[in-house]
Records
---
Amino acid sequence: SAKKLGKDQAQVFDVAFIERMNQNWMLEQELQRYLEEDAIQVAFQPIYSVTAKRIVGVEALARWSHAVRGNISPGVFIPIAEEAGLIGALGAQVMRRGCREVAAWNEAWGVSLFLSVNVSAKQFADAGLLAAIHSMAGECGLGAELIHLEITESVLLMDDVAVERTLMEARGYGMGISLDDFGTGYSSLSYLLNLPVDEIKIDRSFINDLHLDPRRVELVRAVLTLGQTLGKRVVAEGVEREDQLEILHGLGCEFVQGYLISRPLESEAMNDLLGMVGKARRDC
Ligand code: C2E
Ligand code: MG
Ligand code: MG
Ligand code: MG
């Protein structure tokens, strides 16, 4: 009967729900263990200047290579870390590793790459966040002005006063503030006027079909104009194709990031890439 069917469905739903809860709980426990063992890895993706024709910075991206489950995507484990109260510890590990690697590359290759790190809204609740980041950079010998904090609009939806205070604190240290995934959240425009944001990263969903959809070209053009008017750097994320890069170049977009330039790399591969680029530069 329909009634019986309904009951069975409810039961199926409950089982699936409980399984998901269990799964999340297990992942939480395991993530905690990996964090305790300092076993969360960091990948680095270059950010490239089209006009200077060189890598100007790298974005640090957390990686979890699970001994049994294989690679778990940040799209899965970052929300789990946020829910479980582990995002502070995770963020600190990514920041520490990032500072260490970038300071070493800058020293070894005579460059001054900046380090971009994603900071979750949840981390902003920690009043000691900026002081901790600042001292970590200092310990590694990386100038605070080479640290860029990538935030999303979810940060800006929080308590205005606390967010503004934290962002001003970052600015006080000379760090850059970058608005990530731009165009996918709410009411970014007033934030751009009122908060100390230095850089806009156009979400890759707008870059995806750039070569197919003239309306997207106009949209990106508008964001570039906005950036220029307000004095903010603009980075295009998710550039995968030569024709997308050409369009962006034609629009005067200076900074790009994406698989076309390079996928996120392990630190050793990133070091090799910087060495190769440095050698090519010296040879010509
Ligand atoms: P995001 O900050 O917007 O980072 C860019 C994402 O786009 C990365 O995914 C990167 O691998 C991917 N990507 C870069 N170029 C291309 C491209 O050309 N095509 C495509 N299809 N994708 C590209 P990833 O590493 O999976 O990270 C996903 C998100 O997880 C990040 O998005 C960020 O919001 C979050 N995340 C990663 N690491 C951390 C972290 O240490 N802390 C926090 N709070 N969030 C993190
Ligand atoms: Mg980012
Ligand atoms: Mg992000
Ligand atoms: Mg993004």
---
Amino acid sequence: MSVPALELQGLSKRYGEFTALHTVDLAIRPGEIFALLGPNGAGKTTMIGSVCGLVKKSSGSIRVFGKDLDQDPVGPRYDIGLVPQEINFDPFFTVAESLRIQLGFYGRPADEARIDEVLTALNLHAKKDAYTRALSGGMKRRLLIAKALVHKPRLVFLDEPTAGVDVELRRDLWTYVRKLASEGTTIVLTTHYLEEAEELADRVGIINEGRLLMVEDKATLLRRFGERRVIITFEQ
Ligand code: ATP
């Protein structure tokens, strides 16, 4: 088997007495779309944050394309892009300036051709010189995605990318995620919706109360649970 894009072994996170992640083991194959499905508070953001350096793990190991983050906490993260739930750009910059700054974070020059490419792909090019504060909610979400992708990461995390977005953006986003995966990018997305996992993912992991309960390929998951029953269970 090729080296996993992401490998977690015994990953745990405790906040004081509370355990948000319980010894999670998971290997994600290069080029796959993996959906992490779970209700509010399940530990999805904590897991992503541990890999992206936003959360300090309590124990366990994390490897990105075979490189252990304990050995090299910085280098492997150049391969990662994160689309967070929260807006993370400055309202006083333009869209293009935000992307130039983002490239700077990754030690890259302000590559205008790459900025144009990513803005066009996300239907945001017309707003290239607009201030980010003047964007609509949907456009802000497109910019969050552009920021995560502008440095061409090989492993992309999307944390509830379609929560609260309209149908058009959801459709655009799904199309774009599939395109990225077809080009070899590994995608990990979190969602509350079985429908979204079913639409996009090659494999689905179900997480609840910090425990990864199962990882299945999509067809097996649907056979096991039947249509929509997972969502009903979570929302009770
Ligand atoms: P959602 O779908 O609502 O975003 P999630 O699956 O991403 O939820 P997390 O945000 O990872 O869940 O939270 C997992 C658990 O850890 C929750 O019970 C949360 O309250 C707790 N938690 C997260 N961050 C902290 C923190 N800084 N201090 C204490 N507890 C925290």
---
Amino acid sequence: MKAPVRVAVTGAAGQIGYALLFRIAAGDMLGPDQPVILHLLEITPALPALQGVVMELNDCAFPTLAGVVATDDANVAFKDVDYALLVGSRPRGPGMERKDLLEANGAIFAPQGKALNDHAKRDVRVLVVGNPANTNALIAQQNAPDLDPKCFTAMVRLDHNRALSQLAEKTGAHTAEIKKVTIWGNHSSTQYPDLHQASVKGKPALEQVDQTWYADTFIPTVQQRGAAIIKARGASSAASAASAAIDHMRDWALGTAEGDWTSMAVPSDGSYGIEPGVIFGYPVTVKDGKYAIVQGLAINAFSQARIDATDKELREERAGVEHLFAK
Ligand code: NAI
């Protein structure tokens, strides 16, 4: 067994938290030989519920769970952490204006960014799940000036996995036989699920489905899948979101498969004409714990228009939160 690493999870008593913590503790994220110490952050009123979750974690007697810290203090939650999954956020409520949503999340992600800056390991890997995920990640990043900006990422992996599942269903293949799907841009309905480089059983995906299905069914289905789950379940995606968060962190820690890539929202470095300054969904590969944006892909006019639309939305979100950035 290796030495334990510290993994922070915020919103730990929420529904994604409940689907996530047990899998991290069981070794699904970092492997069966990597013990973890969980650092769980909640708001004060949720601490009793969180205590119940801690009791259940202990009752699982996981060989890979080396300890649990449960707190309502971000400075304690992020102390020396190697990984941070920021799940707790303020989703849009009825009648809530966009400005109110961004303000409410600023009040969460600015102090959490500062606490990470002050207390986390210098190579901490941060994944923001709480919506609006890309812009919440940007707020946290901009309040952590002493950390490498590349420490901050947001989750588009659920969208990526949803794209795999839709394409598998359509072609009769297994998701494991599909490679090189990309989610560009924002984790919102402007995201662009791109199949131009994708293959199914080694052959180009777009030669196996017709363009009308791709444009008029596949893209909107992936974009609207979150809403469809809410309609069916009466609650937002939780187990699939937790599973995607584990996939994102596992690939970041242990690497992507040879001959494939994944989708992660990472700080733009100017690739594909996206100006630096937003957290943008890109095709990425990971090697030796470092991610790299896949370069040199041909982008046709169909794709470019959709990449531009999601870029525009992220820039507008950024303009709405710039006052929350540390000076
Ligand atoms: P939930 O409401 O069940 O749980 C959220 C938890 O966060 C609550 O227990 C709440 O007390 C806690 N919380 C709120 N403010 C906090 C703070 N400042 N510090 C620590 N904890 C705090 O929500 P659920 O279903 O677990 O979803 C969490 C977030 O994930 C939502 O914003 C949701 O929209 C988002 N989400 C993102 C997805 C993605 O693909 N990026 C997919 C699905 C959900």
